[in-house]
Amino acid sequence: MDTVILISQVIMGLALLLTFVRVVRGPSLPDRVVALELFSTTVVGLVGVYAIQSGVASFLDAAIVIALMGFLAAIGFARFLERGGPRDD
Predict the structure, then answer these.
(1) Which PANTHER family does the record match to this protein (predicted)?
(2) pLDDT more than 90, % of the chain
C-alpha cells in the first residue's frame, strides 16, 4: 500500500506542476480558469491520499473545504467572464 500511495503522490505532484505551467502560460483567461479548477481538484486528491496514508480523518474535512472553495472560485470566474469581463482570447 505504501508503494501505491507514493506513486499516486508523485503522479499528482507532476500533475500540479504541469497545471501550474498551464496557469502561467495561458493562453487565454478561460484556459487559466480551467487550470485553476484542475489545480484545486488535484490538491484535494493529494490531501485525500495523505489522509489515507496518515489515517487522520480530519484531513478529509480540509479536502472538502478546498473543493468547495475551488468550486466557488470557478463559478466566480465564469460569472465574471459571462458579464463581459476582459478577455484575452
Answers:
(1) NA(+)/H(+) ANTIPORTER SUBUNIT F1 (PTHR34702), NA(+)_H(+) ANTIPORTER SUBUNIT F (PTHR34702:SF1)
(2) 66
